[in-house]
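@channel sequence for tomorrow's demo:
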Amino acid sequence: QVQLVESGGDLVQPGGSLRLACAASGSIFSIYTMAWYRQAPGKQRDLVAAITTGGSTNYADSVKGRFTISRDYANNAVYLQMNNLKPEDTAVYYCYAKHSLTAVRYWGQGTQVTVSS
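structure tokens (generated this afternoon):
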């Protein structure tokens, strides 16, 4: 019912910045809580940042002060601005949506972020 497509992943040097984008379609975007997760090789997929239907945000401790999540209701998109990137940020980043009433979840296919000198 919901399609999520990520973009913006790239190779970047430590201290650099990237902006990830997730385009959502197929349902009413404003009804969904949106989030970014990431998964490094051999590790669990963990929450990076989330934003509710009302615009409240939540961040993992490891990215606080460096990453910012935002959403654009008019364009059905969610973004993750990533600043001061570190090698440990290297992972596949996934867009996530959860229906606020049914709790049905959707995932994007992921976009690779590599931080290396």
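heads up for whoever presents: The radius of gyration is 14 Å.
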